Amino acid sequence: MWYWNLVTQEGKIICKKVTTEQIRTLIKAGHLSDDAQISKSKSTGFRGAATFPEFQPHFTSREAQTQANVKGKGFRDQMRAIAEEDAQQRKWAGFSRFWKSAGGTLMGIFWIVLVLAVLGVGGYFLVTKVLMAQ
What are the pLDDT digits (tens) for 58-87? Predict the structure, then answer.
């Protein structure tokens, strides 16, 4: 059994009797900080919970988990940004393909018209030169 000096929101200190397993559960849940005052005796020996060897591994694993969650959040944010960019590209992909194909078609028509215009102008001058020579 352990005794935990719990400080309420009003600043009042309440001494709670808890088991080792309850303390471990409180640490894992994040409800017991490393400087929470606990003791084996109700009257003396209160010190920070992280100073007891029984609980040090639990505080260490909680800290490692917190660091991993922070790194994981960064990766989640990056993945979300990539997904949004992909969705944007997919949204405009059909429009882009349309303009590329339409642009290719329009350029093809432009070149055909240009060649026909050059041939027409050349033919006109050729015909007018032949008619003037007669």
Answer: 777 666 666 656 666 677 778 888 889 888
**Does the pTM exceed 0.85?**
no
Whether residues 22 and 81 fall in one domain: no
Query: What is d(CA 4, CA 40) in angstroms, rounded to the nearest whole number?
Result: 9
Q: What is the DSSP string of 84-119?
A: HHHHHHHHHHHHHHHHHHHHHHHHHHHHHHHHHHHH
Q: Is the pLDDT of residue 38 over 60?
A: yes
The owner of tokens 């109700």 is: 42
Domain span at residue 12 reads 2-52
What are the φ/ψ torsions at residue 47 (nearest 5 degrees)? -155, 175
3-state secondary structure of 40: coil
| pLDDT-derived band at 120, boundaries 50, 70, 90 | very high
